[in-house]
Amino acid sequence: MGSPAFSVPALRALHAAGHEIAAVYAQPPRPAGRGQRETPCPVHAAALEMGLTVRTPARVRRETAEHEAFAALELDAAVVVAYGLILPKAMLDAPRRGCLNIHASLLPRWRGAAPIHAAVLAGDAETGITIMRMDEGLDTGPMLLREATPIGPRETTVEVHDRLSEMGARLILRALDEDPPATPQPGEGTTYAPKLGKEDGRLDWSHPAPALDRRVRAMTPWPGAFTALNGEPLRVLSAEPAPGGGAPPGTVLDDSLLVACGEGTALRLTRVQRAGRGAMEAAAFLRGTPVPPGTVLG
Predict the structure, then answer these.
(1) What gap in Å lies between CA 26 and CA 83, rounded to an integer?
(2) Whole-number CA gyration radius for the chain
């Protein structure tokens, strides 16, 4: 049970290991691209490629027929990774070994919808994968396996995402093969990572440069960090703290997109993108769109 690209390595690993996959559950196809054609999600597409049965209910929480159809599969276990729908107790209890979730954090830190973004944004030194037996709470179930990985000082969410995706695929095979004992989550250290929206990418120049640097890396590739230049959105694809400051936050300090931030710090924008244009290195962008010192971004 999964939907985005993060879930695909787990599906492929289960299939390659010879597990009998009774069905693949994924989010329904949605309009995508310029033509807004109905497009299957990555897990759906991968399952079709493997010749697997795919089910795409739009809702499952109160749909008794879906609960009965799920129970009729007579599963040993369900593997759930970024599925996107809340499973009711009737479905959680149906598989003999329960519903096993691949969660992209070291629980109980960063329960919720966006744990990878949250770890990068907070400046965590490490994150990881937890294999958890699901219950009715929000990522509160007992843990079967945990494995940590460091977060590099310049890593983005997409880099950590890809590494954790492969880790999750490896650990779920171990969990199914070894059937490790379940351990309750610690009572302390719980944090939450709520679902993100576009506004979470907005850069508030009153914050210090290290925090803004983390926001740029955390919001890459989605929802994307952005500011405004002359009233138009400017996406910031990469940046790094640099010496500078002494001007009101948001003020451009030189001819190379060094921007004043809070607490007397500065952030240099190194790769940007205007609406409707391609991504560009800052130097190339400035050749076509000069941004003189004193310009205020907001």
Answers:
(1) 6
(2) 22
